[in-house]
Fold this sequence. Notes:
Rossmann fold; 28% helix
Amino acid sequence: xxxxxxILWSDAHLDGKQINHQRQLCLGISAIEDQSGxxxxxxxxxxxxxxxxxxxxxxxETVQQAALSLVHQLRPLDRISVIAxxxxxxVIVPNQLATDPASISxxxxxxxxxxxxxxxxxLKLGMTEIAKGKQATVSHIFLLTDGENEHxxxxxxLKLAGLAPEYKISLQTLGxxxxxxxxxxxxxxxxxxxxxxxxxxxxxxxxxxxTLFTRLQSVGLTNASLLLTLSPQARLAEMKPIAQVAPTxxxxxxxxxxxxxxxT
Length: 264
């Protein structure tokens, strides 16, 4: 994967009679497709599925269909793990290469609704399982739930979600059911550097997953950094990220001797 850099100045001319000058600098960074045919990085996905009593009926059926649609889009070099939770969590598919989608699908289809809900138990086990396949992959957790967390701790959920970006993992939340808890799921997604989607019916789930999955499969470079080194008499006054599609975060580190923008 190659990176293209486009530099634009607000005014490239300097008046020699002026001691100080201020100019705006625009840096455009883009990925350039490698013509050698190198494939994008393998995915490392963890599905955290809610099968509690509140998911009885259409919500759980929709969750299962959404999960199955994603499993069958995985490539042999991608990795998959599946966590199921009610008031407690269990691993139903340990982290593995996605070489047997039929077996993975059967385990997802075997889930039945029942019990209470502890989202934090599912997230904790999901973080543990996805960590087993992080080497040379792009890691994402998909949390599929209605957001009702009567046996769990919402603050603990946010703390766990906040760990995801630190370990280069994004956390996507997908809400299901008529009484889904938007507030909780939105906060979890924000803390996990991900996004929230509401799924009302199975056809929508397949469409949303296809859109999200296409974006995830296009990743060819991770943990890239941009280092700006200025001449002795130049000073960077302010760094303003205008728009970012991928990567989704940028951090300006003002305490460094050189201004640095990191894309993670």
